[in-house]
């Protein structure tokens, strides 16, 4: 792949003129800025042309991110980014397809698509803005809200337990699984770059602070730590699983941040490539099929 | 006699559909036009399946009640069809299954055992017996088997067919016609080929009768036709995947039936707002809900016309036969790209799974249409305002273009906006596009008419009822008018076609008269309703009787 765009385009030029409407202090800002830097750096370092990036947005505060960057984008509907992303990657293998989704968005409405994309190892990247609350619909609980969480639809506090999305992803067959935190921005950027470069389905759950409805800054600051080299064998399912289970989104425990699992497997979209290679003259093929009909 | 009807019946799992297609092939070999109606309940083994194969010197597309030959694999196949048997009917039955029957009893069990052939070859014995009864030569029979049976099983089938052939005697003679042997296709196969002809790159679908066979057909022929065929997790995934493919520049179609279309309506609205083209082949069956999964209906017209939240233009076409399924599937795909609107090809089980002789020579090809592409000048704006309402397309990966598609109300670039002036312009722009599509369709045969202008009686119908109506109309010397395009409704062409219509009957496979409702909405008088809603299409003679009540 030869870069068509001159490398070294500054990250700043990727910011679009769209007016930003996030609350002050929202964790989405760091995700936006680190995504922008990750893309700019990948373009420069790996020679990926900027026009080959596509961002998808779900519906929620997080989705606005795609408006704020001057990058190809598909601002879709609630929970449905992932099949659209798979379609794009099927159409054009040069595209780097990155879904920005919310925890309500993807773990509630979109869970089936998420699991299936992991299962088929679709070569896309999923970045979950996991603020553990519905932001845009003003504070209801999500699948990762902790037990007892009092949301506007559950004033008595929820009695359900949260799911551990990383565990779900590991079980589903995701080939790259990581967790970041919006207050650890350099780390976050590295996780983004790693995930985007990964060949296959990559998944990053980002613990994101919702300044308005669920500000867990103190809690995360106290518990979150970066996993060190050698602490987890990212090629081994069992090793990844035990690290992933260290914190279950519910009880008090140290919260590991980093890449837990990363393996290579055949990519879903690849197996369809041969079929349409070389853009054959299909009308002739239709005529032939009819002539030889049986 | 220039026309023959054969019924073959048995249990599900006995290969009645395949046997029916072989019978159609037998007549096709002799130059006849054939039509097959296949009736089967939603179960895999047992029950009662039957196919009625009609062969005629002229083009046909419907069945009649009486049959000339009844091929019965079991007692049910005799008992359930007494009304079809008349003095001239030859009955051939499996003597090892049916006990109360008159005609030729073939000991299929014994034949199959003696020939050391698999039980399914019993079909070939029936086919052989039919050939003999109909005075069709062995060479034609063997030839048909050679083209329909896989090589591995050919010898066994030829032997068993010979036993059937020798067990009966000739009753009448089907004279070979001086006409080419046309291939026999199902409606889904014709639609699939049409989509590919129209430029299809990828077909995405989740199984649901009666569209599954379109999925199977394209999946089987994916290599021959150079298309991708994908079966994702559900219909929501299907339509979103299609939109992702189309956003990235690939022509994509999806297929489903009512229940799956319900799930797709969210994605349909997204297609409307984001202006991403997608073609949906929607095969109707009786609802509500699961309804009668393997039967037929025309009950979803208003659903597809109105599905989705908000207001956006769409193309809805309802082909009435194979030729129309072929050409309008191609055209729906091309126009959906040209105008960046969702297109729906509305079929039903009768058309989708029914089989018919396909005459590619008779296909009136519609114009080729290409999408409007960005010329590369200046800054790319995905939703650039234009006179025609159509914004030029660019796809991600194109240097110098930032392509922003969105489900939100947006400005020209594709940024979210809720500003009053912008959203008004956006909505009006979408409707200009719809009007451009309407204008283009004015030059297409969007409304078809058959029969004399001064007939004084007119039968109005849509979709798969077309051919039953055309045949019944001959009896009354009536005219038939059939809208193929249902949205945007071709009001001018309709008006023109209905000049001097006289007495009008509106024939539909539903309980409320959905085309009639659409016509009234458009300000036209739909005439008297002739409705059937038992999950079965009209037989020609049945329709004649019903029309007699209206026109008497
Ligand atoms: C089908 C559908 N159902 C419901 C909604 C309303 N809705 C908009 S955003 C949202 C929740 C968003 O929560 P989350 O994904 O956590 O994103 P956040 O706003 O926190 O970033 C909901 C339920 C919708 N847009 N579409
Ligand atoms: S509601 Fe929460 S997630 Fe949404 S913008 Fe405000 S702080 Fe951010």
From TrEMBL, chain A:
Domain of life: Archaea
Cofactor: [4Fe-4S] cluster; Mg(2+); thiamine diphosphate
InterPro entries: 2-oxoacid:Fd_oxidoreductase, OFOB, PFO_beta_C, THDP-binding, TPP_enzyme_TPP-bd
CDD domains named among the record's database cross-references: TPP_OGFOR
UniProtKB keywords: Iron, Iron-sulfur, Magnesium, Metal-binding, Oxidoreductase, Thiamine pyrophosphate
Matching Pfam families: PFO_beta_C (PF12367), TPP_enzyme_C (PF02775)
Residue ranges of every copy of the Thiamine pyrophosphate enzyme TPP-binding domain listed in the record: 59-206
Domain Pyruvate ferredoxin oxidoreductase beta subunit C-terminal: 215-275
Molecular function terms from GO: iron-sulfur cluster binding; metal ion binding; oxidoreductase activity, acting on the aldehyde or oxo group of donors, iron-sulfur protein as acceptor
UniProt protein name: 2-oxoglutarate synthase
Organism: Methanoculleus oceani
UniProtKB/TrEMBL annotation, chain B:
Span of domain Pyruvate flavodoxin/ferredoxin oxidoreductase pyrimidine binding: 196-427
Domain of life, source organism: Archaea
GO biological process: organic acid metabolic process; sulfur compound biosynthetic process
CDD domains registered for this protein in UniProt: TPP_PYR_PFOR_IOR-alpha_like
Domain Pyruvate/ketoisovalerate oxidoreductase catalytic: 12-166
InterPro entries, alphabetized: 2-oxoacid/accept_OxRdtase_asu (IPR022367), Pyruvate:ferred/Flavod_OxRd (IPR050722), Pyrv/ketoisovalerate_OxRed_cat (IPR019752), Pyrv_Fd/Flavodoxin_OxRdtase_N (IPR002880), Pyrv_flavodox_OxRed_cen (IPR002869), THDP-binding (IPR029061), Transketo_C/PFOR_II (IPR009014)
GO molecular function, one term: oxidoreductase activity
Keyword Ligase: no
Any one Pfam family match given in the protein's UniProt record, by short name: POR
Alphabetized Gene3D superfamilies for the sequence: 3.40.50.920, 3.40.50.970, Pyruvate-ferredoxin oxidoreductase, PFOR, domain III (3.40.920.10)
Sorted UniProt keywords: Oxidoreductase, Pyruvate
Name of the protein this chain belongs to: Pyruvate ferredoxin oxidoreductase
Organism: Methanoculleus oceani
